[in-house]
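job 3f2a | input accepted
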Amino acid sequence: MSWDSLLAFNAILIAALASPGPAFILALRTAVSEGRMAGIATGAGLGLMAATWTLAALLGLESLFAIAPWSYGALKLGGALYLIWIAVQTWRHADAPLDDVAAPRHGRAFVQGLLVNLGNPKSVLFAGAVIVVVFPKGLDATGIALVVANHLALELIFYSFAALALSTGPARRGYLRLKPLLDRIAATLLGALGLRLIVEK
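job 3f2a | predicted structure (201 res):
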């Protein structure tokens, strides 16, 4: 494995992280509404699951989905339903003052991040497609460990910086002023992403 391959992987990963999807929306909303540590915990869960998908892709996950296509469909449906559930809860609490909304403990925020990327087919497809294109076949154990550790580190750095930036006083005050509108926008986007996962082939 060359350093050029790793740099190419990192460039693609950073672009994917910054694109608006369920993981980004969840991390953004959690950091602004629940604070820095909850945002970092959510990012850690998202990052660990994304790195796990990379490991699975390096170990031949695509072969499993080819052998048992129903497993991908089941994973996709579960992820879609979970996104819709988050959307419904966000919409229901949009008008509630922040103090009245139960703030997730850091462990719960971490698990929520894990579950969102567990059922996010884009994480699976990203890992499978990018790894096939960027890295040579037959990476040894050291190469696999390096790619996975690199992926996890990038995710943790990205979401930690995002949580630090979005949990500042001005960002939080701005969110509190616009909470009903912003929560309904986030709920609509998450719900739409969930419904799209159900209807698209």
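job 3f2a | The CA atoms of residues 22 and 193 lie 7 Å apart.
job 3f2a | closed
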